[in-house]
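Batch job 17 of 40 flagged for manual review because the log was empty.
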Amino acid sequence: MTEQLPATSVAVLGTGIMGSGMARNLARSGLDVRAWNRTRSKAEPLTADGVRVTDTPAEAVDGADAVLTILYDGAATLETMRQAAPVLRPGTVWAQATTAGLDALESLAAFARENDLALIDSPVLGTKQPAESGQLLVLASGPNAVRPVVWPVFDAIGSRTVWVGESAEEAAATRLKLVLNSWVLNVTHGTAEALALAKGLGVDWQHFLDAVEGGPLDNGYMRAKSAQLLRGDLEPSFATRTAEKDARLIVEAGRRAGVRLDVTAAGAERFRRATGAGHGDEDMVASYFASFDGEAPEDAS
C-alpha cells in the first residue's frame, strides 16, 4: 500500500455528546466536514460552524477522504456503515472511534476487509469538554501507510495521538481504551459511594477533601466529579447508560482474557440501577443515586 495524502474532507457519523464537538473542531481546522446523525435535529446546529449535515450515512461518506465513526456501540456502527457501503470507495480510510469492545471490533474489521477499507482502530479518551475544545487523547492502531490521511483529523480533535499498533485487527487501541475506562469508571463509583456514605453519616464533604489534600489519596478527577454532584449539575459529559454499556464491554473483555473484574461488574449494576431510577441520560456520577433504597436525595449537598 502506497503512502496516501492527508485528508481534506471527512465524514463524521454520529454527532452526540462527543461527535458534535469533534465535527466542529474538524470544520474549524479547515477540513470539509459532512455529518450524519440518526436524529438529524441534533446535528443541525453544526451548520453554523460550516458542517454539511446529511440525511443518510451514504450522503455523508460519498467522496470523503476519511470516515470517522463515533456512535453508541459496535452494533450501531456496523449498521451505519452498512448503510454507507454502496458509495464507500475502496481504500477509504475509516477511523473507528466508538468504544465498541473486542467482539464488535472483530465484526467491524471483517466489514472493513469485505469492503476494502483501511481501518484505523482509534477510540478516544475524554468527555464532552475535551471533545468541544479539541483536547481528546486519541488512541490509535493502524497501517503506517494510511496514517498521513488521518493526521489532520486527529490533530483537530485531540491534543495528542498515541499510536499503539500497526494493525487495527489486533485491537491494541481498543484494549488500551478498555483498561483506561475501567479506571475512570471505578474512580467515578468510588467518588459517588464516598459521597453517599458522607451524606448518610452526616459528614461534611469538605472535611474529606481537607483530609486527603496534597497526599497520595488526593485525586483531581475525584474532586471534579464530586464538585459536579455537589452543585447538582448532572449535565452529561459521559452519560450513565453509556457508562453501563462500557462497563459491560470491559467485563466481557476481562472474561475473554480469563480475568475476573468484580468491581467493574458491580459498577455496571450500579449504573443500571441509576438508569432505572431515571438518571440514564445524566452524567455517570449519578451512580451516587444507586446507593439509596427508595427515594434518594436530590443531590449530595
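Reviewer: the log was empty due to a logging misconfiguration, but the result itself is present. The mean pLDDT is 96. Unflagging and moving on to job 18.
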